[in-house]
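EI: anyone free to look at a 61-residue chain?
SC: sure, send it
EI:
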Amino acid sequence: MNKLIEYFKESQAELKEVVFPTTNQTITYTLLVIVISIIIAVLLGAVDLGLREGLVKLLAR
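SC: here you go
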């Protein structure tokens, strides 16, 4: 039981040292993730379209 209590005390001490991001940082990082996700989705969609069209032309021979 002592180990469990010690674990919670150490966890609480660690959480006091955590520096959480500001609201502006959170918004900026969130928007950055969304923009990067959209860019990657578009690129993957373009690659998929290109490969599909290439395969269609290859099989049409």
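EI: The chain has a mean pLDDT of 95.
SC: 👍
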